[in-house]
Amino acid sequence: MKRLYILITVCAGLLVSSCNDDFMERYPLDQITDENFWQTEQDLELYCNELYAVYIRGFSYEWGDGTISPYGYNEAAIPYGDVITDNAAPNSYSKVAANEYTSHTTEGSGSGGWSWGDMRKLNYFLDNYQRGDVAPEVRNVYLGEVLFFKAWDYFKKVKTFGDVPWYTHVLETDSEELYAPRSPREEVMDSVMKVLDEAIANLPEKGSQKPGRISKDVALHLKSRIGLFEGTYRKYHTELGLDGARFLEASIEASEKLMNAGYALYTTGDINEDYHNLFSQYSYGNNPEIILWKEYSADENLGVAFSRYYAQNLRHRHGATRALVDTYLCTDGQPIALSPLFEGKDSIQQEMLNRDPRLRQTICNFGEYALAEGVMGADNAPLPNIPGLSGNKCPTGYRVAKWFFNEPDDWGRLTRGMQAAPIFRYAEILLNYAEAKYELGQISQDVIDQTVNQIRARVDMPPLNIGAIPADPMMDSDYATYCDYVPEPVLREIRRERRVELAFENFRWDDLMRWKAGRFLEKPVEGIKFVQEQFPGVVVGADVFLSGEGYILPYYEVLPNGRKWNDRQYLFPIPVEDLVLNPNLEQNPGWGSN
């Protein structure tokens, strides 16, 4: 998509109110009851503009300092979502990851993600968009946009809660549906795919859409993602008793269409810079890898303070984990447990030698990705501010380099920052395709060459040969310990590639959930090997605490027994207030009244 630059010029009198939702969703609709509305294409376009602002948020807006409920991470969800997973550790540990989230953590009815105000806006459009004398071929483009958003919204709700009510129209205070039980997951996901297919049918072809609006390819990307998620969730969550094959087939079909649509991985041939630079741009207008992105503008006051606060490590004050670092292969294609090229873990400098180039483009080696002198946070390079040092903390010592935008001018713009936000990128499609093909028993060397090996080629990593896959005793042991199953080597490597390529893009939580691998969160959270000479003023046992191997343990004091997983965490609880208001709702398994 050439650009996603949202111009919200709708006058306040034509917008649906965005006040807080309550159980009855009683915010006023009379702001769009003017008899003259819905009559022109402009009316439909203006209404949809607000929906773009809701659903395609990128790094959010202005200060970008809100949080996403119920997950608890910053509203710039793509770069920050991994802080609740085994990829990252925030300075203040995640209550979601530590199984300390409860149904009382929410703030009343309509909270904790159980919110229906945006869905009401979508259904309000669907109830009214045909009122005017707008040509069907024109109005149906906006229908496609709204159906795309509806499918995306419901997909997020199913991931969070499982069964959810399916609403086809705007509900009033006396609507019986307000007191109906939840619709079964199977019915909801069938409806999601039906709605998404209708969106695909109505959206324009890539390049023919109006500037700043979504195309058919964007909806195909979402279909690829939803199909893989639901298909694998059903396979590994056998307690559901649902067949996921047709969802995997849908993912493959959508992926193949995009693989034949002219997209390509971004590369200039610089294996040590291209991957990092992909996430540090002002514009993706000519980037062959980006299918959907959000553009920001200082001139239009439609910017966001992302680049400044991410570069300075203020938001979440997080660091990557050793579990993620150990996943990266050596440059010979062998895991660190076996490769003769691996230099050991006696220091971060040592363990980054001879590794997949994406490691040093995702996580800072000491002295790299430094901020300009005198800029707040500049003391986080060349060494990270581990506990015991002043400044914005990097609790593991593995400071994240991905998304670092070395543009001091942009940091100075604050809420008018212009770093562009990639939303959907082609590399995900390749990985979706490879995994779905494996899960349907259709994997082959040709499939791997089209997908995993294309991604590896960008950084000149050896191709994966499915006839000679190296063993990885460390990763297999982790699966046996934390997952209760050990995947076949080819699936293990597809999953490894996904974790490495998509790190800090908010995929890891969903991947763990659909693979029924939540217990990976129990793996001890460790950071860098602590080298006293590098941090002479830091006191072991007072400022930092170390494992037996000398790795930093960021949660040694606050979580002395580590994080403990409970299978109820595969779904979040419905707020207790909503259970009281609608006795026909049932709480998700394991949550009770907690």
UniProtKB/TrEMBL annotation:
Taxonomic source organism: Sinomicrobium weinanense
PROSITE patterns documented for this protein: PROKAR_LIPOPROTEIN (PS51257)
Localisation per UniProt entry: Cell outer membrane
Keyword Isomerase listed: no
Keywords assigned by UniProt, alphabetized: Cell outer membrane, Membrane, Signal
Residues annotated as domain RagB/SusD: 298-591
One cellular component term from this protein's GO annotations in UniProt: cell outer membrane
The name this protein goes by in its record: RagB/SusD family nutrient uptake outer membrane protein
Domain SusD-like N-terminal, residue spans: 82-227
Similarity comment text for this entry: Belongs to the SusD family.
Entries under Pfam families matching the protein: SusD-like_3 (PF14322), SusD_RagB (PF07980)
